[in-house]
Amino acid sequence: MAANLWPAQQAEAVLARFGGRPRLLFETGYGPSGLPHIGTFCEVARTSWIRRAVEHLRPGQSTELYAFSDDMDGLRKVPLNLDDAQRATLARHLGRPLCDIPDPFGCCGSYADHNNGELRRMLDRYRFSYVFKSSRDQYRGGVFNDGLRAILRHADAVRDIILPTLSSDKRDEWSPFIPICADCGRLYSTVVTGYHPERDAVSYRCEREFAGQAGCGVAAEASILDGGSKVGWKVDWALRWLVFGVNYEMYGKDLIESAALSRRIVRLLGGDPPVEYFYEMFLDETGSKISKSVGKGISVESWLRYGPPESLALFLLHNPRKARRLSWDAIPRAVDEYLDLLDRHYDGAAPADRLTELRLIHPDLPPAHPYPYRVSFAMLLNLVATVGGDDPDLAARYVHEYRGRIDAGDPFLRRLVEHALRYHREVVLPGAATAASVESDRPLLREMEAFLAEPRDEDAIQAHAFASARARGIEPAAGFRVLYRALCGQDHGPRLGPFIKLIGQERARAALRRAAAAE
User: Fold this and answer.
1) Quick one: pLDDT at residue 132?
2) Pair (347, 272) in one structural domain
């Protein structure tokens, strides 16, 4: 494995700290306040690559990955990507633990069960090796009890760590424990009023306003054991590190301070913090952080409607310390990068670090090229735009006729064509605006249409388009833009000569005539 790749560097850091241990534990965390999005998939994928790198560097090393769901967390806001009835159902339960909220989809025991199921289906579909851990099971099953007792014994010291990071108006009421109100079942309306380590309990009043609702007014005592209370986010992280013995955890840049506080807390409790690594956030098309709780961002399922899974993995493998905008146009670029990397590997031209990337995202790579042809996704997108309709057979047949050694029924070619058809239909067309030809474009379009009346080879077509633009005082780049708009409704495309041969000269002539005649 190339030592300059970040998964290898992280694996070396884990082995340097914990290499003498018989088992190394990796953890990823997920908050099931909304359906899992691409960021959730990304964290599991990246951590899995580091785990794989550890096993490569030290063959025989036992490793395990916990995919942890904090389903005891309270619902803070209602996701936007639900219908009105589902949103109304959730709105009645704001502040309650996610695992205690009825499933608005009507198919599972709770809202958390539904989202946990979606998470596990997503991870299983892509054959991740993991052990699922539910916060509810750990709290209510007593797994966390000894850790919770340790926190209660050190409650004042934990407060001393956290309070300086809070605004002055929040310090008096802050506690490491969040009791679940015995009357209304809510978390964020309770305020701890006393600690009772001798009986593993805290006193509380349900008096705080949350989400526009006042607390129910109950004053009571709650056990810290068996799910009677949970601890807040920063303390919960330290609790998991302590009880599970986590050796590696990744997190987003927005949690750097939380990680630093959690390290201090776990050491206070007698534990050893893991090797950690922060990554930059994925941004949506507006430049905002992708969020589960408001239902924004491209989902894994959305990506995989338009590209093979290896293209998504390759996109996620790039430098985690660089913020990346997860826009729709990232998908075609990633698909072409994957196809190009495959070609370079089988041509013997892939550098060592790129070859390692390919084997990380494609561990079952066959010894012979699985797709021994050169077809770019950009070309397919332009092809389906030009061919029109929604017929994968037609598009595949055009590729087959141009690249005769490709079977039109080749499974991978079929999948790529179907991805391109969906992308064009569902992403390109809804946002496309057709630009009408201007009077100065028409002579170029008509001249090119006339030139194609006779059989031409690729190079002749390319050279003639260039010369025709120059002869009319048009910069070649502008001239090619006119031709691409006429052929496929976009400003750019694959090399023009091969593309016209791919779609066929008669179809190209028809498109040029239509554009020249447009008002």
Assistant:
1) 97
2) no
Residue 372, CB-side half-sphere exposure with 13 Å CA sphere: 8
> Which has more confidence, 283 or 449?
449
Identify the DSSP state of 258. Answer: H
Q: pLDDT tens across 118-155, in order?
A: 999 989 988 899 999 999 999 999 999 999 999 999 99
Model confidence at 493: pLDDT above 80 = no
Q: How confident is the model at residue 433 (pLDDT cuts 50, 70, 90)?
A: very low
List C-alpha distances in Å: 233 to 52, 68, 145, 161, 273.
29, 13, 17, 14, 16
Amino acid of residue 343: D
- Composition of the chain by helix, strand, coil, percent to 5: 50, 10, 35
- Which residues face 325 on adjacent strands? 283
What does residue 199 show for φ and ψ, rounded to 5 degrees?
A: -130, 20
- Distance (Å, rounded) from C-alpha 461 to C-alpha 499? 10
CATH of the domain at 475: 1.10.10.350
Q: Which of 384, 416, 432 is the C-terminal boundary of a domain?
A: 432
Which of 276, 294, 312 is the C-terminal boundary of a domain?
294
Report pLDDT for 322. Answer: 85
139 and 198, same domain (yes or no) = yes
Q: Which residues contact 167 (CB under 8 A, 6 or more apart)?
A: none
Backbone φ and ψ of 461, nearest 5°: -60, -45
CATH code for the domain of 239: 3.40.50.620
Tell me: do 290 and 325 sit in the same domain: no
Question: 315 is in which domain, residue-wise?
Answer: 298-432
Contact 273, 262 (CB under 8 A): yes
Judged by phi (left if over 0) then psi (alpha if -120 to 50, else beta), residue 337 lies in alpha
Q: What's the farthest any 2 CA atoms get from each other in the chain?
A: 95
Contact 320, 43 (CB under 8 A): no
Let me know whether 335 and 265 are in one domain: no
Which run of H or E residues covers position 252? strand 248-252
Q: What is the β-pairing status of strands 177-179 and 229-231?
A: antiparallel
* Residues 150 and 11 reside in one and the same domain: yes
Percent over 90 (pLDDT), the chain: 54
Number of Cβ within 10 Å of residue 26's Cβ equals: 24
Torsional sign, CA 56, 60, 66, 67? positive
Domain count for the chain, please give it: 3
To which H or E segment does residue 23 belong?
Answer: strand 23-30
Contact of 479 with 444, CB cutoff 8 Å: yes
Q: Write down the mean pLDDT value for the chain.
A: 87
How does pLDDT run across 377-422, given as a tens digit for each residue? 888 888 887 776 677 777 777 776 666 555 656 787 788 888 989 9
For residues 289 and 302, state if they share a domain: no
Residues 284 and 357 in one domain: no
Residue 438 or residue 24, greater confidence: 24
CA distances from 340 to 155, 343, 345, 419 (A): 56, 5, 9, 17
Give yes or no: residues 278 and 362 share one domain. Answer: no
